[in-house]
Structure formats: C-alpha cells, structure tokens
Amino acid sequence: MKDFIYSYPTKVYFGEKAAAKALPDELQKVGKTVMLAYGGGSVKKSGVYDEICGYLKEAGKEIVDFAGIMPNPTYKKVQEGAALAKEKKVDFILAVGGGSVIDCCKIVAAQALTDKDIWEMEFKDHVFPAEYLPMGAIVTASGTGAEMNNGAVITNEDTDQKAGVLGAYASFAVLDPAYTMSLPARQVVSGAFDTLSHSMETYLGSPREITLSDEIAEAVMRNVIRNIRVLMLDMNDWEARSELMWASAMAENGILKIGKVTDFQAHQIEHQLGAYTDCNHGQGLAVIHPVLYRHMYKDGVKQFARMAEKVWEIPAEDKTPEELAVAGIDALADFIREIGLPSSFTEMGITDKSVLKKVADTCNLTAGCCKKLSREEVLEILEECW
C-alpha cells in the first residue's frame, strides 16, 4: 500500500427526512444569500424544490435561483453561475440534484471568488484554487458519488474537452432515498452502474497486490450487483435504493482509493465520448468496460481473476488465472445485458462513427491503468464498441 493522508470534510445526513434534520442546523452556519442550484425542473415536479425553499425561508435566507444545469454541465454554465453568484453576492451554494448539478456547483464555488479563469489555472498553469464559496449538496439522483469529493466533470465546448476539474467540497450532504424514488428506472440503473464502474476502476489500479481498500471495494461491488438485481424486480424497493445510495458515496469518498493509484481509463474514454456526443455516462461506461477489459486483462490478470472469484462468485477450480479473468469479464458483459444497459454505441443512438477517432486522439491516457494504452489501441476499443 502506498503512503497516504486521509481527511474528510463532508458531514453526511443519511436516511428518510434527512433534509429536515440537516437544513435547520446547517443553514444557521451560513450567510443570508443562498444560491439554490438545480437542473431541468424535475425537482419542482417532485416537490423537492418547494420543500427545500421552505427550509430556506424558515431560516430567513434570500434565495437566488440557478436553474437549468444540464446532464453534462458545460464550462459556459459554470461561468453563468459564477457571474450570478458575484452579482447577487451569494454567501452559500446549495446544489439540489445529481452529479451534474453538484459538479457544476463545485466549480462555480471556485470561479465566484477569483477573476482568473479556472480552466486555464488548472490545465495550463497547473495551479488550483485555494478559496471557495461554501456549499452543500442534496442528492436526488445517486451513482456518481459527486457529493463525496471535490472533483467535477465539466465539458468545455470551446476546446471539445470533457475533463475532471477540482473545486469545492460540500460541507454537508443530504442523502434521502425518497428523493430518488421518482427517477426513471433506466436512469437509476445507469447511475448504479456508474458506482460499479468507480469501484472497478479503483480496484484495478496499482499496487497490484490486494489491499484493505481493495477488499472493501469487493464488498461495495457485490452490494451494487445484488441491489441492482433487487431493483430489477421492484424499482420501489426502499432498502435497495438506500444501499445503492450509500454504495455510490462509498465508491467516491476516498476510502476505496486509500493507498492506491487508480485506473479510470474507462471513465477517461467515456468522458471524451461525452464531449462529442453528449451521451449518457452510465450507459457509455457499460458499453466500454467489457471491451476495454478484454484488451487489458493480461496485464492485470491476478486482479481480474480475483475480481471474478470474489465479486462475480465464479469458482476458481479447474481454471487458469487467465481463464478465470476472462470468465469474470464475460460475467460483467452478461450482467450489463441482464439489467438492460446497452452493449454497443449504436444501441445508445450514436450514429456518427467519425467521432471515434476524435475521442481516441484526445482522451486522457491514465497512469494507473493495468496496461498503458496507445491511441491506436483506444481507437480499436472504440471501434469494437460500435
């Protein structure tokens, strides 16, 4: 295990009526003007918006609406939010939504306190902001684990990049499974697969020897697989929703990454695909993972074989490590089909094959990957996903 320092700034309120427990106390700690950030309006249809506004008004806060944050938040939307925060002299940001809303707000919180361009700071100067507007997160769609870290995935339309940007941590997060109950089944399953992807991408990083963090990751992966299957039978199963919500947080609060250099090559490829196609994140990962893993398992055969045995519960008897690893990848591909996620880009409705070369030429190649991929091999993988 590599050396590490671990500290965590986010206080979590989990369970039914969690907002009622969190907001009266937490809002006392922040200034008068609160930016209430959300997406396309589903929080209004579900009644969550009115509920949260009620708590804000009871606390005597002035509300500044920041609406319309899209599923793949753009850098222009970040700049819009930052300008609004400066104009209205916002004291606190409350992000209400899924990973896209929360991610956008993390960077708004940074950009609102500096005249420097955050994108240029981080990607050209390699300098990171030191000041942020304080923020909190109320999760209405789980899977990304965005509420549990300071990383944000933002699409810069001017540069055709969809990349990870570092911003603010939420000082508190509200995780109430009730807020996810109105989501469409496919969105819930896609989000849960993102959690599984986070766990796999962390597990398959380095060091290659199994650590305590890896053994915790195995438990998270088994939990996600089991509870997705429960939801496939009953999308209203409260316990399954609860487990998946906490699994999402566990996959991205740093616990699984302690002592690890993570892989995340599937995410890097999917992010760039999203920059060119605006595709659904979880579905894109579902297509990419099995194909990518068939290209790289020989360079991490011990980890792949263990994942097959410990996560997919495939007996190791009479199998070589290579055979066991392949059986695990087959089990992953079968599971993706079982839960109704796509197995090809064409199933996702992506029709322009010319974007694949652009994705291969521009995606980030990660250091923690079992196998150092070339751009030519990334293109092969993308074409096999077609």
Structural account:
The protein is of the alpha/beta class and 386 residues long. The chain folds into two domains: 11-180, 3-Layer(aba) Sandwich (Rossmann fold); 185-385, Dehydroquinate synthase-like - alpha domain (Dehydroquinate synthase-like, alpha domain). The chain is built from 15 helices and eight strands. The protein has helices at residues 18-26, 42-45, 48-58, 75-87, 99-111, 118-123, 185-203, 212-233, 238-252, 265-277, 281-296, 301-310, 321-338, 355-362, 375-385; strands spanning 11-14, 33-37, 62-66, 92-97, 135-139, 151-156, 161-166, 172-175. It has a six-stranded parallel β-sheet, with helices on both faces. A two-stranded antiparallel ribbon has the order 6-7. α4 crosses α5 (99-111), α7 (185-203) runs parallel beside α9 (238-252) and α14 runs antiparallel to α15 (375-385). It is globular and about 65 Å long. The mean pLDDT is 95.
Brief summary of the model shown:
The protein is α/β, with parallel strands linked by helices and 386 residues long. The protein has 2 domains: 11-180, 3-Layer(aba) Sandwich (Rossmann fold), CATH 3.40.50; 185-385, Dehydroquinate synthase-like, alpha domain (Up-down Bundle), CATH 1.20.1090. The protein is built from 15 helices and 8 strands.
